[in-house]
Amino acid sequence: MKDLWRAVAHFARLSWHVDRRRLTTGLGLLLLGCLATPALAVALKHLAEALLDDRGPAAVGCALVAALFLVAELMLGHFAHLHYFELGELEEVELQNRLLAASGGPDTLERVGTPEFADALHLVREEVVRTRSALEAALQLVAIGVQTVVTMVLLALVEPVLALLPLLAVPPVLMGNRAQDLVERAKKRSAEDSRRTRDLLRLATAPGPAGEIRLAGAGPELGRRQAESWRAASTVLNRAQWSAAALRAAGQALFAAAYGAALLITVGTALAGRIGLGDVILVITLMVQISTQMTTFLGLFGTLQGAGRTLRRLAELDTAAPAPAEAADPAAPDGATPARLAHGIRFEHVSFRYPGAARPVLEDIDLEIPAGTTLALIGENGAGKSTLVKLLCGLYRPTSGRILVDGTDLADLDAAAWRSRVAALLQDFARYELPLRQTVGLGDLRPGTEPGTDDAALADALARADAAAVAAALPQGPDQLLGKGYGDGAELSGGQWQKLGLARTLLRPAPLLLVLDEPASALDAEAEHTLFDGYGATARTRALAHGSVTVLVTHRFSTVRRAERILVLADGRVREWGTHEDLMAARGLYAELYTLQAGAYV
Ligand SMILES: Nc1ncnc2c1ncn2[C@@H]1O[C@H](COP(=O)(O)OP(=O)(O)OP(=O)(O)O)[C@@H](O)[C@H]1O
User: Fold this and answer.
1) Cα angle: 384, vertex 193, 226; to 5 degrees
2) Per-residue confidence (pLDDT) for residue 250, from 0 to 100
3) Structural fold of domain 337-421+511-602
4) Is 386 in the pocket of ligand 1 (CB under 6 A)?
5) Based on the number of CB atoms within 10 Å of its own CB, is 373 exposed (0-12), middle (13-18) or buried (19 or more)?
6) ABC transporter domain: which residues (predicted)?
């Protein structure tokens, strides 16, 4: 019930705020249409009485009035709809915006990765489109409420006990409500399997992995798993639907029994001579109308309950998972991001564990990266390199310990301000299917500027990312639409997308932190060489101008050795730390790996 009131209050408030004239006109027309229904029953009563008394002109007049009420009943709803359908669409857009904010808005990524968050997101995404009709349902509910009160008064005037009939619609409504609860709980229980069903279908039909899936012959196996998840989800849902149907049927049987009893009372009262044929016709017409009202009521109730649940789930998205672990200071961030790094970035006994994970990924990382330094991060797959980089970007918060930026805890800096000073190309970078200049231009979103319109800055970033040739080879140059998802865009190779991602990173104005997480993984050897030559110059300029720290994650030692500091991570801990010369002299893991890789090229 709370969900229903939440929905009514939310949509009424929003519509009032958006366009109160449309709202009141729509509601007024709906009310008139709904009042025409019992009025029609009254007109029919008088028509029957006029016919019985042989009053011809009165009968014709009543017939005309009845026809008028019928037209009003049928037509006014359509005109009302014209007034509020747009409001309904605006409300759906508002919910979509809230959904976008909820899924992309959190400052850090801890909760985005949790199954609870993914399940809630899946359900809201599926449901949000259905909220379009919620405003209409809320208005109709009000109109039907008024209609029911008028019907009850008319029935009471004939025979007081009959006024109870609309109230007997309450148990079926409550049972219908309980039935819907069963279905919703089943939906929640099966959300993970539903999500897997959808994701596997998407994987099996997406163009990207199609080649690998064909080569591996994995299609049937994916199909089998998809069918398995679908079966698991639909077993839970079917069972709930059967129980819900039984509950609804029981409620409706109760109402049908009351309906039959009311009919008998009416017949008995008529036979006793207490009411005439006109009243019998009035009561029977009103009873038919009540039965339709109840069915409509149940439908509207369901729509509004659903919309209320969507609103609740949207609110739950903010609390679906644990809050970022132990922020250093729970108070609002108040530290200002420095204009220039004077000292550097310090990891102070930093440990990190992903939410729900049994063990930490990073443990007791304690080191100082002086301002202006280029740091290379190496380690085996899964050693924690990307995680460390994401902590630096402020995408996760340490579970314990602190990351200090010029002495201020990163958790105390305004998250948006810090991110605006971070230029990062992460491993899972985005492939924006937009015109090339916008794909790159998204790297600089300063207010008041249109992304990608500064030709000189764009050309400079493309050149430094070794991507000028990518743009030059496209039929429409930087204005070329990229990707095959929309219209006739140009598809790029993995390496070309990566170069554009890098150009986007390089467009970031005045970064204090530059992060490249395996920026050359899709590049050929020559492109990699050109990239790092160009990138070294960029890092030096940024270091001089802003004291920027550059962090490179790479498995290529020819690149690593050029860095001023090298961090070797193993099992989430600092295994070695120093310059290339220090680490070679130490003859540890770094020296061993370096020698091995250098040997491979001899
Ligand atoms: N979102 C996540 N949730 C839970 N665990 C994660 C998540 N991302 C990574 N991990 C785990 O954290 C560990 C470190 O992952 P990370 O990506 O930091 O390693 P990496 O050193 O960058 O590896 P690679 O060289 O393969 O890129 C891995 O064991 C991984 O399974």
Assistant:
1) 95
2) 92
3) Rossmann fold (3.40.50)
4) yes
5) buried
6) 345-596
Indicate whether residue 428 lines ligand 1 (CB < 6 A): no
pLDDT at residue 333 greater than cutoff 70: no
Atom of ligand 1 nearest to the CA of 384: 18
Given a cut of 50, is residue 196 above it in pLDDT? yes
Six token digits for residue 504: 């986007």
Long-range contacts from 579-587, C-beta under 8 angstroms, 24+ separation: none
User: Is the confidence at residue 70, as pLDDT, over 50?
Assistant: yes
DSSP structure string for 505-520: HHTSSS-SEEEEESTT
Beta bridge partners of 367: 347
Q: In what order do the strands lie in the sheet with 408-409?
A: 362-370, 344-352, 400-405, 408-409
For residue 22, the CA-to-ligand 1 centroid distance in Å is 53
Is residue 113 in contact with ligand 1, taking CB distance under 6 Å?
yes
* Protein residue with least CA distance to atom 24, ligand 1: 381
pLDDT at residue number 523 = 67
pLDDT tens profile 2-22: 777 787 888 788 778 878 888
For residue 453, what pLDDT is reported? 85
ipTM of the complex model: 0.97
Residues of the chain with CATH 3.40.50.300: 337-421+511-602
Closest ligand 1 atom to 383 CA: 21
C-alpha 230 – ligand 1 centre gap (Å): 29
Report d(CA 323, CA 380) in Å as an integer: 30
Question: Residue 335 has what DSSP assignment?
Answer: B
User: Mind listing the pLDDT tens digit for each residue in 271-282?
Assistant: 988 888 888 889
Q: Considering only 85-99, 147-161, 317-331, 391-405, which range has the smallest mean pLDDT?
A: 317-331
Kindly report the average pLDDT of the chain as a whole number. Answer: 84
Q: Which atom of ligand 1 is nearest to the CA of 572?
A: 14
Q: Which residue among 116, 359, 361, 392 has the greatest number of ligand 1 atoms within 8 angstroms of its CB, and so is best to mutate?
A: 361
C-alpha of residue 381 to centroid of ligand 1, in Å: 8
**Bridge-partner residues for 409, per DSSP?**
404
User: How far apart are the C-alpha atoms of 108 and 116, rounded to whole Å?
Assistant: 16
pLDDT digit string (tens) for 462-500?
988 889 999 999 998 899 999 876 667 888 888 899 889
387 lines ligand 1 (CB under 6 A): yes
The closest of 80, 84, 78, 75 to 12, measured between CA atoms, is 84
Closest ligand 1 atom to 555 CA: 25
Question: Does the pTM of the predicted model rise above 0.90?
Answer: no
219 lines ligand 1 (CB under 6 A): no
List of residues 6+ apart from 387 with CB closer than 8 A:
352, 354, 361, 362, 396
The residue type found at 408 is: T
- Asked if pLDDT for residue 319 goes beyond 70, the answer is no
**Pick from 311, 268, 295: nearest CA to 135:** 311
Going by alpha carbons, the residue nearest to atom 29 of ligand 1 is: 382
